[in-house]
Amino acid sequence: MNGPYVPVVGLEVHAQLLTASKMFCGCSSRYSGAPPDTHCCAVCAGMPGALPVVNARAVELGLLTALALHCTVPRASKFDRKNYSYPDLPKGYQISQYDDPIGRGGFLDYRIGDRVIRWGITRVHLEEDTGKTTHTDVDGREVSLVDYNRSGVPLMEIVTDPEMRMPEEAREFVSALRQVLMYLGVNDGDLQAGSMRVDVNISLTGPNGERNPKVEVKNLNSLRALERSLAYEIERQGRLLAGGETVEQETRGWSEKEEKTVPQRTKEYAHDYRYFPEPDLPPLVIRQADLDRLTGTMPEMPMTRSGRFVSQYGLTPFHAQVLTRERPLADYFERAAAADRSVPPRIYANWITGDLMRLLGEEQRAAEEIPIPPENLAELLSLIETGEISGSAGKQVLDEMFTSGQAAHAIVERRQLRQVADSAALDTLTDEVLAANPGMVDQYRKGKTNVIQALVGQAMKSSQGRANPQVVRDLLERKLN
Amino acid sequence: MPISRHELEHLCRLAHIALDESEMVDMLGQISTVVDHVSRLQSVDTEGIEPTAYAVPIDSVVRDDDTELSWPTEAVLTNAPRRYGDFFEVQSIFE
Amino acid sequence: MIDLTSLTLSGARGLLDRREISSVELTQAHLDRIDRLEPQLNAYIRVTGDIALAQAVRADEAMRRGEAGELAGIPMALKDILSTVGVPTTCGSRILENYVPQYNATVVDRLAASGAVVLGKTNMDEFAMGSSNENSAFGPVHNPWCLERVPGGSSGGSATAVASSEAVYALGTDTGGSIRQPAALTGTVGLKPTYGRVSRYGLVAFASSLDQIGPITRTVADAAAVLGVIAGPDPRDSTALNAPVPDYSAALTGDIRGLRVGIPREYFGDGLDSEVRVVVERAIEVLQSLGARAVPISLPSSEHALSTYYVISPAEAMANLARYDGVRYGLSLPGDDIWSMYALTREAGFGAEVKRRIILGTYVLSAGYYDAYYRKAQQVRTLVRRDFDAAFGEVDVIVGPTTPTPAFPIGAKVDDPLQMYLNDVYTVPINMAGITAVSVPAGLASGLPVGVQIIGRALDEETILRVGDAFERETGHNLLRPPMTAEVSA
Ligand SMILES: [Mg+2]
Ligand SMILES: [Zn+2]
Asked: Interface partners of C (3+ CB pairs, < 8 Å)?
């Protein structure tokens, strides 16, 4: 721990919503990589006289999140203007939600090892993203360049309760929240690219319960940066307080290079957001029927699903967690397992978390891009289970299925991988193996019976994996004894 | 209720308006007079009265999540006082 | 030979439809008149003669093909706060002097679809903040009835252009009276539609919960015709009402027998000029003579409406005008850094009244004052609305003066904002309640026009237009023209 001080941490997470169009206009919200100012119109570039119109899908995605985070959703919500000046904010105010957010008072349960932690959610609200400002040098002049492509992209802000938390707990919370948002299909979870952004508020509570000023840390674009910056701040603030100094209430940034937080140059010299209801947007009335419909579309959340994988399929907790980390992978597992129930679920889990994930990793492909239909995987595993092909042949088949997209039986036929169980052929094969390895035969007869394994391996090798290892083993044992 | 000089300076900073000395003096007097006038509202009994934020009683006006063509970049930038390529250029944000 | 600039919209419509005149002739006659009168009036910020004549040519062709809309070929003027693609839209402000919109306001598109000919963009109080048109960066507008007097504001240019026959009709905007007050002061008809009746898309915002676009015309029938074209739902304006547009012209039956006319006690108090009172009382007698029944009513909260207005409108304006920062469009003065660029740009770009309102709006919303001012004003706004709801339970329309006085001399109130603000005392409550009202010429007081205001229920433009039309037919006050007009056309 941190001497007599306990860290109190609050998180603000901004997540871009996966809509086709922007929050208040029809411009495409898929701006990533586009040349500057190519995704703009009168509305999102803040032209005089333009008016916003709310994207229904953005509201749905916000509500879906609020429901998934167990928030209370009000019967009516509204938008407000948050007034501040910055060149990337084209209207001079951000349309946001102030006192009637779409969700309040929820929580998220997440797991660290065997511990289940519940972190309170203060609120979930909708707003619009700003443009992007780059500070640079043009012909020796220090200037800022503004691109409004991102301006008006739908954004959801999730604010947690300030709680006594350690850096690891904050990291795992964000990891779990990210997983939930990706499960819901509301956000792509890309911290690096900034489509999910985390700001941290941290203060230390002293030995007598006294609260010290809080520091906000921004620009945390990885889970690691989040954890490290918190650890750094706990240490820094603790050292200041222990030395009889005070902590200054300020905004700091995380410097990846220096591995520390540094004071941020101030954005604006006067703060007072002067919120008031956005007169251009009538209030939103949220109907129970809409909430029921959304609840009906809500996917099972990762932690619940992981628990079910253990109880329903008999998977190990480890496999269950790996499989449920991403929704497409978990879906894949369940579809494969359902395709052929004669193969035990743990076999699917083994192959998916093992060889299949290895192949994905090698190809740097995402789980939704698995080129093997789940039914084809089921067919392959069934061929192995019934002994038609060996496990090692199965690995070769899987590799080829991954690259060629062909079905398992086609590859098995073409490459003649079906196991040889015919005893005449195996009789010859085992004789050859014994003849070629007199040393091992000798060792076996002197009592080192586990060399049988190596002999089986030799037989498998010379049969190119097609021999049935159990039959081979039986034959070898009989001949040696 | 007169507004103090200090308060007015703060308001000017928030509103990004620079006033010269004589404007400042005029503004102090005029704003104070108007604030004084509108302060009469304080005498109105509004206990339990809902605020009206919208002129018409409609709600939940939304559009489908369909995309429309954005403007040509030239149209977005044509009025820009300063530009650098297809970026808007502004003076550095930092002193 | 008829004077083409004396034509009303319906008069011109008939001549055009019968091919007795062409749109090009009609347009040219108005451009000539603008040339002659503008040095004295300054009603236009920009005259777009070439565009107007090109539109007139197209309108003549469309009429020949029999495809013309209701407004086809008739020259009109737009308040310079309505966004016009390719034509500068200044809002009467230095800060937007060189701003050229890349899109049209919805009303501009609707006019174009109907074949309207746009003569130019009219002068106005900067960002529609004012009641005298003295707050324009492009100089004051002079009242055609008396050049030393103001025409009212903020749509003073539009009202003056119509009153002096520099346009057949014009569009203005009304946030606290900015259509009705200048209409009253120039002897024209000015209609503020129900909030949401006309799309605000492309109207450069002043106070978004109050702004509304409407016509200024020389007859009520013309106002009905123009409203019919510009009204209706718009997917680009979330506050535009999704209600069908009635045939307003068909509502002008001339029959107001049995109609209950509310006479609000509060509109005839101390602040009302005695001559104006006489004119308005006479107007009420005329309505009674036509079979309407006068019913005394009370609008007790209306005395607070003005205070409410001067909290809510500056607050909204403060935010709406934050975008003029020298980054994307408009004036931009370099400073040491971006913050000084903002301040220098806005200091040089905005006039005194705009700065006053921005500061006021900043004040009433700033930390610690929100509840005392903004929230309180919103609550009183509720009371103002309830007054009208209650009144309309008993009466069909409400009638009173549009303004407390006729046109006052230029310069008389520029240094006294509060006195200036009192001009809108009878018009502001209507905006607060989001309902509709029309100002109709009611005669003269000491040679200056006086308007009578007819107030209606939300979306009941038909009834107030019917009353105004009946009044106009009976009295012919709208036919009085400014003396200078006669001189010029002689
Ligand atoms: Mg935010
Ligand atoms: Zn856009």
From this structure: A, B
Among all residues of chain C, which has the CA nearest to that of A144?
Answer: C338
Judged by DSSP in three states, A153 sits in coil
d(CA C351, CA C7) in angstroms, rounded, equals 37
Give this prediction's pTM: 0.92
Q: Do C363 and B92 touch (CB under 8 A)?
A: no
Span A153-189, pLDDT tens digits: 999 999 999 999 999 999 999 999 999 999 999 999 9
Say how far apart CA C170 and CA C246 lie, in whole Å: 21
3-state class of A219 per DSSP? Answer: strand
Residues 47-106 of C with CB under 8 A from A: 82-83, 89, 91, 96, 99, 101-103, 105
Q: How far apart are CA A225 and CA A237, in angstroms?
A: 18
Q: What is the ipTM of this complex?
A: 0.97
Separation of alpha carbons C101 and C81, rounded Å: 11
Please judge whether C239 and B31 are an interchain contact, meaning their C-beta atoms are less than 8 angstroms apart: no
- Interchain pair B84, A143: CB under 8 A: yes
If one counts every other C-beta atom within 10 angstroms of the C-beta of residue A296, the result is: 7
Q: Which fold has domain C4-266+277-298+389-489?
A: Amidase signature (AS) enzymes (3.90.1300)
Residue B34 has a CB neighbour count (10 Å cut-off) of 23
Name chain B's partners: 3 or more CB pairs within 8 A: A, C
Q: What pLDDT, in 10s, does the model give residues A224-256?
A: 999 999 999 999 999 999 999 999 999 999 998
Ligand 2 centroid to Cα of residue A152, in Å, is: 7
| Under 8 Å between Cβ of C239 and C200 | yes
CA dihedral angle for residue C89, residue C92, residue C97, residue C99, rounded to 10 degrees? -30
Residues in C closer than 8 angstroms to B18, CB to CB, are 340, 343-344, 346-347
* DSSP 8-class letter at C176: S
All structural domains of chain C with their residue ranges:
4-266+277-298+389-489
Residue A10 one-letter amino acid: G
Report whether C89 contacts C107 (CB < 8 A): no
Cα A379 to the chain's mean position, in Å? 29
Residue contact B44–C102, C-beta within 8 A: no
Interface of A with C (CB under 8 A): 42, 45-54, 81, 83, 85, 87, 90-93, 144, 146, 268-269, 272, 274-276, 279-282
> In 3D, which of C242, C456, A54, A51 has the Cα closest to residue B58?
C242
Question: What pLDDT was estimated at residue C1?
Answer: 66
